[in-house]
Design brief:
Blueprint (H helix, E strand, L loop, with lengths): L1 E3 L14 E7 L2 H13 L4 H18 L4 E6 L10 H6 L2 E4 L26 H5 L15 H7 L11 H13 L5 H10 L6 H17 L2 H4 L22
Parallel strand pairs: 2-3, 3-4
Antiparallel strand pairs: 1-2
Helix pairs in contact: 7-8
């Protein structure tokens, strides 16, 4: 299986990217079998270390100062532990088509990989009450949208334009302000020391109010109420 965090154009570095596109490629069955082995052998020290490493990696994704867009396309393998990538994304786009991609929930989405708030990403998405969604049952785009597991599910006619417009729209905005609001939405539910630091302190003080895009010579707050237009820097932390 392959997980591709983004594509890079020539001359572009990850430091200047404000938006990451999350894609997967591979076999859903292999992902599910991998997850099953991890859960059935949870008492093994090596398996425990692997799960802890997965947990840490996904937490790092949660607190990144980028906008995260998941693209669920034909050939993707968003199931179980890899479905966590889509659940962690700020927006997820899933193609709705005959023989299109599917997503699958498993026991790995029910607690082994918690967020900084102590909840699973599935629980965080449905704070008002978790819907009854069968585990290990593939769902197409229409069903995933109906269940609230993806943000948008365009059909084959609209897919290219919907995705293109979403990326261009996000890329045209300051990589600070919107990311700060997204970061607050990522950590709904119980407040912990981690969410205070990464979801509140980092988002609002470090990513917004103390950065040149806000308070610099050409920042948005500095030029507020003036006829000049703010100039943004695209360098990320």
């Amino acid at each position: 299986m392959i997980v591709r965090p983004t594509w890079l154009r020539p001359g572009t570095t990850t430091v200047t990217l404000g938006t990451w596109l999350l894609r997967t490629s591979g076999s859903v069955d292999l992902v599910r079998e991998h997850d099953r082995l991890l859960l059935e052998n949870a008492d093994d020290w090596l398996v425990n270390e692997i799960v802890l490493y997965l947990r840490r990696t996904l937490k790092r994704l949660d607190v990144t100062s980028r906008s995260l867009l998941a693209l669920i396309e034909p050939g993707s393998c968003f199931a179980g532990s890899l479905l966590e990538l889509a659940l962690a994304a700020d927006r997820s786009y899933m193609l709705a088509a005959n023989d299109g991609p599917t997503i699958t929930l498993s026991a790995m989405n029910d607690g082994p990989l918690p967020m900084s708030n102590g909840l699973s990403r599935f629980e965080t998405r449905f704070l008002a009450g978790k819907p009854e969604i069968p585990r290990d049952q593939p769902m197409d785009g229409d069903e995933a949208l109906e269940k609230g597991l993806v943000t948008f599910s365009p059909d084959e006619i609209d897919w290219e334009d919907e995705v293109r417009l979403a990326i261009e729209e996000r890329a045209s905005l300051s990589p600070d302000a919107l990311t700060g609001m997204e970061a607050n939405l990522r950590f709904a539910g119980p407040e912990t020391m981690e969410t205070k630091i990464f979801g509140r302190l980092s988002a609002w003080q470090n990513w917004i109010f103390q950065r040149p895009n806000a308070v610099g010579e050409k920042g948005a707050l500095t030029l507020y109420g003036k006829p000049e237009r703010a100039r943004f820097t695209w360098t990320r932390t």
